[in-house]
Amino acid sequence: MKVRIYLPGLVFLATLIAIGYVLESGMLTGTLSEAWIDREVRGKGMSGELLYLAMGGAATAVAVPRHIVSFLGGYAFGAGLGTALALVATEIGCVLVFFYGRYIGRPLVSERIRARVRRIEDFLASNPFSMTLLIRLLPVGNNFATSLAAGVSRVPARPFLLGSLLGYIPQTFVFALAGSGIDVGAHSRIAIAALFFVVSGAIGIWLYRHYRREKSLGEEVEKAI
Question: What torsion do the CA atoms of 225, 139, 103, 120 make, to the nearest 10 degrees?
Answer without folding.
Answer: 20
